[in-house]
Description:
Elements: E1 2-4, E2 12-16, E3 22-26, H1 29-35, E4 48-57, E5 60-69, E6 72-82, H2 92-103, H3 113-116, H4 124-143
Antiparallel strand pairs: 1-2, 2-3, 4-5, 5-6
Amino acid sequence: MYVMHNSEYPLSCFALFESGPCLIADANFDILMVKLKGFFQNAKANKIETRGTRYQYCDFLVKVGTVTMGPSARGISVEVEYCPCVIANDCWSLLMEFMQSFMGSHAPGLPSVFGTKHDSIYSPSDTMVQYMELFNKIRKQQQVPVAGMR
């Protein structure tokens, strides 16, 4: 289980399971997890976060951040939201065109979370699932052994 926080929702705490649901609780969920330390072990060595800047351009919200794992930077995150739209599949083409305008060929493909949410309302937990996927990808890159030179 991953416990995540988002500065856009300071009073909420998100608990995500590897291949399951996302629980949204109030910020005191962390205190409950400390009390359950006999059942859940905190992996502080694996703490990963993204911090950055939030920009608003017309109806678009863009957040660019540096992903850090411990004291070192591991990558860059770019989050883009089209504020008037609540059903993500309805505006994916517009989001893609906007992202390509400043990311070029580095714009991402369709997120996997869209595959299960064809015409349903996009929620903050969907954003957290995408962050978890990004963080897991970065963790896996960290774990790849580097072949020694001879």
